[in-house]
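ok new one. same drill as before - structure tokens go in, u give me an amino acid for every spot. 271 of them this time. try not to just spam alanines like last time pls lmao
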């Protein structure tokens, strides 16, 4: 890896390689089933599609620890001439620290070697750890709010919630991205103005959309909340859609995600 001081795969204790044989592709399918808890008859990505994507030259790679697959990542190229790769799914078994980071950095190097200069993907804006990983640790940009993008997905993670997503764009040669890939994540100042806050009971609290920088809160653990209090989870979905989605629709830009649980949004373009 040309711009890394150390190999993150080595740090995570894994090797990353392309998946080409049917047993490997079946193992990746089973891994995704296990992570998303979909059941064998409704995998997030079926093995036959993984086979086709692999044969077509797409990014289909797995992370192995002692020859056991502990993570996998799948992406495919966008429209001709755009120089972009869309990363459709990345999954890592629990307690495997650093593997997701290693897979994304490997995917970046692979994309650059194949002529791409950007990788895009979607993520649930309500999941704090994913927001920080994508916008902070990788220094990607969240550029568009996509309400109920995939429709209903009946798995253990989405729990039949609306599948609102943020579209992330990772500009592979950007200075902030290069710094993040060398272990220096993007850090943002949260700012004083709160557009969406959180009550002492963990519910969304309306704020004021004024000033240049505003904060938008998300709950500490939306996945647990979907199980323990579906009404509160639905309230958060609607509130973030309205506030964060509304800000982006009006031309604002997400500057990053503060680890304490806030999107930092710059309204300069709309003032």
């Amino acid at each position: 890896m040309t711009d890394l001081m150390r190999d993150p795969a080595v740090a995570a204790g894994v090797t990353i390689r392309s998946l080409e044989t049917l047993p490997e592709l079946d193992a990746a399918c089973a891994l995704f089933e296990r992570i998303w808890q979909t059941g064998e008859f409704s995998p997030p990505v079926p093995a036959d599609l993984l086979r086709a994507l692999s044969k077509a030259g797409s990014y289909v790679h797995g992370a192995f620890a002692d020859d056991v697959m502990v993570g996998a990542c799948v992406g495919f190229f966008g429209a001709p001439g755009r120089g972009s790769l869309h990363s459709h799914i990345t999954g890592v078994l629990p307690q495997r620290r650093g593997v997701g980071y290693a897979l994304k950095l490997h995917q970046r190097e692979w994309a650059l070697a194949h002529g791409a200069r950007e990788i895009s993907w979607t993520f649930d804006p309500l999941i704090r750890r994913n927001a920080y990983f994508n916008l902070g640790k990788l220094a990607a940009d969240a550029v568009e709010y996509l309400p109920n993008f995939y429709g209903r997905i009946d798995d253990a993670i989405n729990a039949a919630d609306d599948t609102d997503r943020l579209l992330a764009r990772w500009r592979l040669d950007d200075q902030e991205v290069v710094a993040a890939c060398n272990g220096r994540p993007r850090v943002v100042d949260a700012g004083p103005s709160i557009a969406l806050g959180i009550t002492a009971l963990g519910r969304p609290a309306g704020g004021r959309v004024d000033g240049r920088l505003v904060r938008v809160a998300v709950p500490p653990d939306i996945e647990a909340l979907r199980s323990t209090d579906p009404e509160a989870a639905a309230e958060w979905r609607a509130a973030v859609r309205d506030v964060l989605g509304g800000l982006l629709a009006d031309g604002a830009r997400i500057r990053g995600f503060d680890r304490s649980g806030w999107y930092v949004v710059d309204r300069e373009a709309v003032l």
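The first strand starts at residue 15 and ends at 18. and btw The CA atoms of residues 27 and 68 lie 9 Å apart.
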